[in-house]
Amino acid sequence: MEGTVYQTPAAVLRRGQEAIGIPFREMDKTGRLRSGKGAVGTVVEESWFGYTPNSDAEPDFPEAGVELKVTPYVRNRRGLRAKERLVGCLINYETEWDKTFETSDFCRKCGTMLILSYEHRPDADKGDLFIDHATLFRFPEEDLAIIRQDWETIRDKIRAGQAHLLTEGDTLYLAACTKGATAATMRRQPFSPIPAKQRAYSLKPAYMTRILNEYVFGARRDERIIQDWRLLERQSFEAVLLERLRPYLGWTEARLWAQFGGRSAAKSRLALLLGRMLGVRGPLARTAEFQSAGICPKTVRIQRSSRIRESMSFPAFRFSQLLEETWETSALRQQLEPTKFLFVVFREQADGQYCLERVKLWNMPAEDLEEVRRVWERTRALACGGVRLCPDGRVVRNNLPKASESPVAHVRPHGRDASDVDVLPDGTVLPKQCFWLNNRYIERILQAE
To answer: Where are the alpha helices (DSSP H) in 287-421?
Structure first.
């Protein structure tokens, strides 16, 4: 890595602050702004800081020990969120397995970062956008404890010869995202002959959203489940979570609501109830840990027959949107791969009441994600003109993927009523559809230890 003229963190920060408010068009001296994805970051590196972009495991300013990160955010009615994950450095499977967190490529490269943020506006010319904040960022100890556990999860999978089974959902804040010209870029791994996708360390979009809100824009800090981060030196976040919920196993829903303040009719009632059980005032979704990890709570009700009646749905999709996506950029993949699901399982008793039986933190394994990909690809192919509608009495059936055709997922309607419809490219009108995880698949997940 070549040296730079910025020898200290303070010097790097000062130069970053000088960039605030300058349109990228004025900053660009090399015409890089027209080069496509990643153009803004390249302009800042080359034209503003004067160094050649690289993929080294060393920080961009080696003498100062600072990595430069230019990151966009978007605003909507819910506030500010990161537009994308923040990618660190490539994971070297051949060497990273033999390191500690402190000697890891990620820790060495991203321990201290200069975060330059800018608002992404789809209707604006890229050249008119500009840096609005420059922040020298070091991970707070409470976050670093979870990031360390995430890194160890990634390293341990490499050591076990399972680099090919890595997914972003394995971890909470720090993820192993696919990286390369295509998601199919493959690399050797040291403990298995099976090639693994090239991956890089990255901070998940949900965690980046909290960094931007709390540490860049100075928003109020969210309530935490774990008040003393040193607890995470002895236990994983999941272990702490399950340990705190264990005293309530076997309680009926009625008893839980009586204990924690009556029955709520709000859609967030489960999150509110779980929050009370974990000792927080608000819903879980608003705690620092759940926001940073993007954990999604799901209630599962098991009947006396040990069957789960309902499959698990995802937001309805439009066929026109489906045809514009690739699997790598698809909404379904983004809803599944990075996500940890917290299954809160209630089992029906002989008297008809439901009791809290167990809680399980889960993410979809790589091999099951490939099966979902197959279902997604078949759906997309049918959308190009292969969907057939077959009237069957008062019901109109179609040939989209059925639960009987895949052990993991299927497609069926998700409309609010008969008027909630979508239109295929050939003009065919049908009820709005969505992807579902099969109820039998959810049963198998909950049966597995």
So the answer is: 288-293, 319-324, 331-336, 366-383
Q: Which DSSP category does 427 fall into? A: S
pLDDT tier at 267, thresholds 50, 70, 90: low
Q: Are 191 and 157 contacting, i.e. CB atoms less than 8 angstroms apart? A: no
Distance CA 251, CA 346 (A): 9
296-302, strands of its sheet edge to edge: 296-302, 341-348, 354-362
What is the rounded distance in angstroms from the CA atom of residue 238 to the CA atom of residue 106?
Answer: 23
Is the entire prediction scored with pTM above 0.70? yes
183 pLDDT band, cuts 50/70/90, is low
- CB-CB contact of 375 with 411 (8 Å): yes
3-state DSSP assignment of residue 174:
strand
Tens digit of each residue's pLDDT (9 = 90 or more) over 381-416 = 999 888 888 877 777 788 999 999 999 999 998 756
Two tokens, residue 436 = 């579902």
The CA-CA-CA angle for residues 202, 206, 212, to 5°, reads: 90
Identity (one letter) of the amino acid at 330? S
| The predicted structure's pLDDT at residue 263 | 62
By CB neighbour count within 10 A (0-12 exposed, 13-18 middle, 19+ buried), where does 334 fall? middle
3 state DSSP class of 161: coil
For the beta carbon of residue 54, count every other beta carbon within 10 angstroms.
11
**Higher pLDDT among residues 67 and 266, named by residue:** 67
Residue 89 near residue 53 (C-beta atoms within 8 A): no
Amino acid at 260: F
Contact 375, 406 (CB under 8 A): yes
Q: pLDDT, tens digit, for every residue of 50-106? A: 988 777 788 999 999 999 999 999 998 888 999 999 999 999 999 999 999 999 999
* CA proximity to 372, closest of 323, 327, 416, 427: 327
DSSP states along 73-94: EEEETTEEEESS-EEEEE--HH
Task: Indicate the SS3 state at residue 117.
Answer: strand
